[in-house]
Structures are given as structure tokens and as C-alpha cells.
Design a protein that fits this description.
CATH architecture of the largest domain: Up-down Bundle
Strand order of the largest sheet: 1-2-3
CATH topology of the largest domain: Alpha-lytic protease prodomain-like
Structural class: alpha/beta
Radius of gyration: 29 Å
Order of helices and strands: HHHHHHHHEEHEHEEHE
Strand content: 5-15%
CATH class of the largest domain: Mainly Alpha
Helix content: 55-70%
Mean pLDDT: 80
Number of strands: 6
Largest sheet: 3 strands, mixed
Amino acid sequence: MLERLVEKIIKNKSQEEQRTKVGQLAGTLGLISNIILFFGKFFIGFIANSVSIMADAINSLSDMISSILTLIGFKVAAKPADKEHPYGHERFEYISGLAVSFVIIIVGFQFLQSSFAKILEPESTAFSIRIFIVLLVSIVIKIWQINMYKRLAQKIGSQTLQASGKDSLNDIFTTVTVLFSALIEYLTNWRIDGFIGFILALYIIYTGLRMIKDFIDELLGSRPSDQEIRVMEARLASYPSILGYHDLLVHNYGPQSKFASVHVEVDASWSLTYAHQVIDMIEKDFQENLAVELVCHLDPVAIHDAYYLEVNKELMNILADLGEGLKMHDLRIKSNNTLQFDLVIPEGITEDEDQLLAEIRQAVNERIGNYHLDVRLDHNYLL
């Protein structure tokens, strides 16, 4: 049924419109189901005088707010680029997710306070079979929500919907805990409701903090996934006309607005026109098949110069002998007796960089010749 509904709303729509429609569908379905959950849990929590059930109900209220923010987020994110936002508005999806996270934390602190008060002054709760049935039904609804968010998130590759699905999974654990608490108190008359509510409040706060970190990482510009890097590297390695590549950098302005830059090594004897044709082909391939706006920088390599190749090989041997996982690229032998290159410093290296450069200079003077070194240190965190 969900697939038929999705196919109906995205029929004859562009990729951007499909994403917006599917995101809004998820927000609408989530909003309706969370309204039902909130009123059901709040009603039975009020009747039973249970702070843990009330906390679970307010958690559903925060989910209602999350669904509303999801609807708003996908609506704003769908706006086209304009003069003030030349890269579009897709990052607003992350902002809406960040707002959801703050709502969750506020709710958590409110129930932390009320649960602590009930620990100090415990009150009896009035549980019944109807309360157990309502809680069981809420678990079934949450299982449906998880499945819905997961399928729609996969459909459009949405981190926001994935987060909503994880939040629904958390809600199942919360409700199961409340149900267990109710059962224990019903059978033993132990007044543990305040303690369970306190634990749930801490869990709600933790969930909100974790979501804040994830969305802030996206807004700041987080590292692309290893899978994304592998796909791009495999694509670049598949072009037989280029000699190699380095300094692949990836950043995005939203789930569908990915940009990248890379330095492409080519035969220095190529004409500028031919070299431009090659990188045009690569950029077009990335845009059409990976939906990535790639910009290529040309690095000519003098592969027909025997002395250049000899110096390049010996310099790589020097770096290998230092045993730090060092790499280099963009070697230039300049007329003023200077070797110019970029030195890639791997993450986690412990040796002082100035000392490292001094060791490289000494080895170059001993094994290559009396050259001045012009070295640019390169920290590539995609390695």
C-alpha cells in the first residue's frame, strides 16, 4: 500500500520534486500516527497517575513536533537556488532536524524534574488491562512507523527520515520499559514508576544530544562515507587516459547537492585542448552517473623526461624509508635548483613536522643532489 501511494505522488515528477513529495508524505504519516499515540498515552497516563506513561506520551508529543518540522524542512529545502543562496536550500533539512533535537532535550529535562519529584514522594498508580492494551497498540504503531521511515528514507536517501526511524525505535524501547514498569507495579505493588520515568528522561536527553551532534556535523561539513569515497575513487581509477589523481575533496550543500574537486595527473606532452577534453569528460561522467558536481585541476607530469622520473622515484624511496606512511605529489624540478612538491602527512603521525622536513632535506642532499626544497604540507583526511 505504501509503495502504491509513493508511486502515485511521484508520478511524472522531477527528482527534486519526488524527494519533496516523499519527505512530506513521511512527515504527514508520522504526524497522524504520533497524534494518535500522544492522546492515547496521555489519557491513560493521566487516569493511571503514571509519570512514566506521561513521559512516554510527551515523547510522542515531541515526535509530533518532529513530524511538523520534517514537513517544513522538506518544503523549504525544495526551494530553488537564489541570489542569497546560490547552492540552494537543501541544508535546511539539517536545520529542521537540529530543531527536533532541541525539542527532544527540553522534553527530557522536564520529565527528569517530574520523575525526580515522584521518586521523593511516590504515589500509587491505577493500572488496568485497558492500559496494557493501549501500550501494546502503541508498540505496534511504532513498529509500523519504523518500517515506513526506513522505506521512505531509502527511497530518497534522507538522513532526516533515517533519524526519525531511529527515534521510533527508541520509542519502542521506551514503551516496552513503561509496560514492564506497569506490570511490575501491578503484580508487586512496588512503586518504581518515578525511577522508570527518570531513566527514560535520561535516555530522551541522550538521544537528543546524539542527534544534535549528527546534524551539526552535517552543517559544519562532515566527512563523506567510506562508500561514497570508494565509488568516486573507483570511477577515477577507471579512466585509462589519466596517470593518476590526488587531493580528492568532497563537500555538500544538502543530500542532493554534492560537490567535489580533484587533482588529475596527465601527460605533460598533451595539448591544453586535449587535456581539457579529458577532464570535461570526467566531470560530465561524475555529474550524470554519480550526481556529483566535480571540478578537475590539471597536474602535468613529465613522463618522457628520464631525469624527472629518476628524481621522482628516488624521492618516493626516501619517503618510504622514513617509515611514516608519507606520500608526495606535484613534483616540479625548477630552474633555480629547487624541488617543489606537496607532502601528504597521514593522520596520527607523531614526529614533529619541522624535524621530518629536516630529515627529508638531508636525505635529498645525500641521495639526489644539493637541491633547495619547497614543500607544501598536505593533510588529506579522506585518506
